[in-house]
Design goal:
about 60% helix, six-stranded mixed beta sheet, alpha+beta, Rossmann fold, Arc Repressor Mutant, subunit A, about 800 residues
Length: about 800
């Protein structure tokens, strides 16, 4: 300072319990600093210097953002943050008043006080004292941030001392983070990161994103609505949740300050306030992890589970904010627009970070849900290789889906799902895996039904559980219960392509042609369902022998799938058609269609179907080669070992006239006779095929009684085969078995067998009364029936 200069008098202001230091940009309450971002502090300073005067919105915006155009929402957000930091509204305190149509004013009288040395003292269990002797900006920023973090941790501990705020039954809604940094990379990313961190907890219960989306839909909110704290509270109240977590991130010089506040969704009572500091952008995810861990502790979770299930974000997901942002957007798009639309975002995530395990897991799940089996398998294998870079919950998902889809070992998948259920009892995913395919492949229908009921119980607003439970009722021939579950889904105003397919299947089993056509018509022009519904219609037509119409609809389904880039799905449609042709004796057409499907895609299910068609068509060499390839490539796969290979090898043996060998090959499949291989749970073929082939083997061996038992199994479980052509052909198999019995029986037994045979032939011919007349198996059936007469 030169001799001619006079010392500058430092200003300090006080109002209510607060002191304001403009030089240090510091707000202190009862000796403890109140964390504010620079812009929020500047707004406060303008209001303080115009004590009890109205400051218009324009005046505030020009003062705080003099050279930048900003929207009024930015001002509103900073006012909100100021009020929240000061405790405005708590214990009847009001500090910042809104003057409608004009602006804001400070409610308290402000007085100027002499300059004083500022000491920040925070004490609880230990005492931390920070003396400020310098005013250099860099020095103040580092000290202020350190003080903020210390004070925040003490305040948080005080809130939760000696009591548990939340219970295991309390649902928590995550709001979007308020991002005032100006960097869009944090948008959506921090909310996703916080969700990953908190979902590791077996104690906390986060409301799943799909349920949030469903609730927003019921509130007539757009699917992509920003989940502001107010909107999050409304969602929380509608689902009878307990608390809302709202986060924020702000710049403090070159550093970042993250905030997390938990409030009761009905009363607005603050349950916890957390703050964390990040020196660099690269440290933000680590700071978020630390903040989440503190919240878990103060919410009542035990230190034991926190210690066991608390993988940091950069290890549980990715250290890349950009990759996490793409991953977050992928899930958001998946819930709004389906799996297909989400794929580019998950692909982008693994492009940015090739070691992002759960991004590969998400890709696998989305590909699997759209019928792309090879791509699903490829991606879940990558996720499995990186499973150590995932949280415990994510690791369980990867293991279960790897065994369920990758290796196909459903016994191991079942064990993993049981462990998953024990660790995370409120997660729907293990129950959905068990009810959707694991228990079905193992033939455990009762268990699958209970798991589906659990999915509905856990997430009553999600369509998946209703679909699985409705399917279960069809499998066990409880058609009225299936209709009731569809009614419950309708009451919840939910719609999903799979529910449309379920309605079609129910109508088919009830012989309601009008309802079937209604679903077919409703699916026209709708991506994601039109091709599936066309294939379902083709199957229903083939069931009654209308093969030409079935071919047309099947080709339509395949064309639609290929137009949208789903080659594997198209191949599944075509292999279904090839199998129908083989069953009815159109072997040349069957072989041609199967090879066309194999050219489109050669995944497990298509290879299986192609091999079976070739075996039934007399090309035993190629069929055996495909079977050997399946055994080599998928040695653990439950469906391959106990369904696909026995059928293929038995069919090859039958084509060579070796009935004993055929029956021997099928013995290994007996425990799984009524189960559903993976081909049946998604592509609707393969269910009860071991039973059908065994019945054919007994017919070839002229063992009528044994053959009748096999075909009777199919007739009694129509809900398992649903519209598969095999279900209709079981009537003909029964007729032939009874006719064989009549030939070997005598007297009244022979007469009774002939009567049963005639009735079974009549059932088949009535079912096929509108069938194409040139079908080989129909001609044979008519000739056999005439001879029996």
């Amino acid at each position: 300072m030169s001799p001619s200069e006079s010392p500058k008098v430092k200003e300090l202001y006080e109002f209510g319990p607060f002191r304001v230091d403009p030089e240090k940009e510091l707000l202190v309450r009862a000796g403890e600093p109140v964390p504010l971002t620079p812009k929020t502090f500047q707004i406060l300073l303008v209001l303080v210097r115009h004590s009890q005067e109205v400051v218009t919105k324009d005046e505030l915006m020009k003062a705080v953002w003099p050279d930048t155009f900003v929207e009024e929402a930015n001002l509103s957000r900073n006012i909100f943050m100021l009020r929240k930091a000061m405790g405005d509204g708590q214990e009847n305190n009001r500090y910042v008043i809104t003057v409608p149509g004009r602006g804001y004013r400070l409610a308290e009288t402000v007085r100027v006080v002499p300059e004083q040395e500022v000491r920040i003292v925070a004490a609880r269990h230990s005492t931390v004292q920070v003396e400020i002797k310098e005013t250099k900006p860099w020095r103040w920023i580092s000290i202020a941030v350190a003080a903020i973090v210390v004070v925040a941790s003490v305040v948080g501990w005080r809130v939760f001392d000696h009591r548990t705020v939340l219970t295991e039954k309390d649902a928590i809604v995550l709001a979007d983070f308020a991002n005032t940094t100006g960097d869009p990379v944090f948008d959506g990313t921090l909310r996703q990161g916080l969700a990953v961190q908190l979902e590791q907890s077996p104690f906390l219960s986060l409301v799943p994103e799909n349920r949030v989306q469903q609730t927003l839909h019921m509130m007539s909110q757009p699917a992509d609505a920003r989940l502001t704290p107010q909107l999050a509270r409304e969602v929380c109240q509608r689902i009878a949740g307990a608390a809302v977590l709202e986060g924020s991130i702000a710049s403090l010089g070159s550093q970042y300050v993250l905030g997390l506040r938990a409030e009761e969704c009905r009363t607005g009572k603050v349950l916890d306030d957390e703050l964390a500091q990040a020196a660099r952008k690269e440290d933000v995810l680590n700071a978020l992890s630390q903040m989440a861990s503190k919240f878990r502790s103060r919410a009542g979770e035990s230190l034991a589970t926190i210690g066991r299930y608390d993988t940091p974000l950069d290890e549980a997901t990715t250290p890349s904010l950009e990759a996490l942002q793409a991953y977050s957007m992928g899930w958001k798009i998946a819930w709004m627009n389906g799996g297909d639309a989400s794929l580019p975002f998950f692909k982008r995530a693994v492009e940015i970070d090739p070691k992002f395990a759960m991004a590969y897991g998400a890709l696998a799940l989305m590909y699997g849900s759209t019928g792309e089996s090879n791509l699903a398998t490829e991606n879940i294998r990558k996720a499995y290789e990186l499973r150590d870079r995932a949280s415990e919950k994510e690791r369980l998902f990867i293991l279960a889906y790897y065994d369920g889809r990758g290796t196909g070992n459903q016994e191991k998948a079942h064990q993993t799902c049981e462990a998953w259920e024990l660790t995370y009892p409120r997660d729907r995913e293990p129950h959905a895996f068990l009810s959707g395919f694991v228990d079905l492949v193992l033939g455990k229908y009762d268990d699958a039904g209970k798991e589906a009921e659990r999915v509905v119980e856990l997430e009553p607003d999600i369509a998946l559980g209703y679909f699985h439970l409705g399917r279960h009722y069809l499998y066990v021939n409880r058609l009225d219960d299936a209709e009731n579950i569809l009614g419950r889904a309708s009451e919840h105003k939910m719609e999903h392509p799979f529910l449309s397919l379920l309605r079609f299947e129910l109508a088919f089993l009830k012989n309601d042609a009008t309802a079937m056509q209604r679903e077919v018509a409703a699916a026209q022009g709708k991506p994601g369902i039109e091709d599936w519904m066309s294939d379902w219609q083709a199957s229903a037509l083939a069931y009654s022998g209308r093969m030409q119409d079935a071919r047309n609809w099947s080709q339509r389904a395949s064309n639609l799938a290929q137009q949208t880039g789903h080659r594997e799905r198209a191949a599944l449609f075509e292999i279904r058609s090839a199998l129908w042709e083989a069953f009815v004796g159109n072997t040349s057409r069957a072989r041609k269609t199967a090879l066309a499907a194999f050219a489109l895609a050669s995944n497990r299910e298509v290879r299986y179907g192609t091999a079976l068609v070739l075996a039934m068509s007399g090309d035993s060499s190629r069929a055996q080669s495909l079977a050997d390839d399946l055994e080599r490539d998928f040695p653990e796969d439950t469906s391959v070992r106990f369904y696909y290979l026995p059928e293929i090898r038995a069919s090859v043996a039958l084509s060579r006239g070796d009935t004993s060998k055929a029956i021997e090959f099928l013995q290994i499949a007996v425990p799984y006779d009524l189960g559903m291989p993976r081909s049946a749970t998604f592509a609707e073929f393969g269910a009860l095929y071991p039973v059908y082939v065994r019945g054919q083997a007994y017919l070839a061996a002229r063992r009528g009684a044994e053959a009748a038992r096999e075909f009777q199994k199919i007739a009694e479980h129509r809900g398992i085969t649903i519209g598969d052509a095999l279900g209709g052909l079981a009537h003909l198999g029964l007729a032939r078995a009874y006719a064989l019995q009549a030939q070997t029986a005598e007297g009244r037994d022979a007469d009774a067998s002939r009567a049963r045979a005639r009735a079974a032939y009549q059932d088949f011919l009535t079912l096929w009364k509108g069938a194409d007349p040139d079908i080989p198996i129909l001609k044979q059936a008519k000739a056999e029936y005439a001879k029996l007469q």
